[in-house]
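Bench notes, afternoon.
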Amino acid sequence: MGKHSKRYSILLQKIEPDKLYTVDEAIKLAKDTATAKFDETMEVAIKLGVDPRKADQMVRGSVILPHGTGKQVKVLVFTRGDEEKEAKEAGADYVGFNDLIEKIKSGWTDFDYVVATPDAMPEVSKLGKILGPRGLMPSPKTGTVTKEVGRVVRELKKGRIEFRVDKTGNIHAPIGKASFPEEHLIDNFLTFVEEIINARPPSFKGTYIQKVSISTTMGPGLRVNVNNLLEKLKEREK
């Protein structure tokens, strides 16, 4: 038995694998089981009823978490012209054009988000093989190809996350750190789920949100009661 498995089996004793927890219980218990030596990330996994192989059932988008993710993100902006100053003032970590393209071609990818102005895209799209597999390619769908670079950089710095459903119908996303207060994690979680619901494809029939679970980086997954989750979202609308 390794160190991790011993710690993990102690954590498993605290949870009931078949139980469906309310949102508040799940967040509290996930915080309690975050006993690693670093500040663990709180993650949510949502199983949707969609078939992502069908073009009209693709679910993707972005959401600004009200309390951020707790992660310092590095933002790179491809632009030339007036937007350069705007990007720098908004807090972009790297701003440039040909110099950055060459650097990336030589294997550098030390950044979390890429934003580009539309005029830069013909050149930036040539980096598809490097940026694409890492999920870093700027796209008009996620708002990262834009003339409003200042606004987008500020949103990304503040805690905007992008999501897209994978081949198996699952969406995974960070909703903060285990050290966050419970109410901040609950607020981030509900904001995220609201955005997933808003992204529901109009043509989809059936049960959209099938399963939801919350876990920390090193902790076990806790299943969330979807009915309780939907009730909490209704209360927020009042």
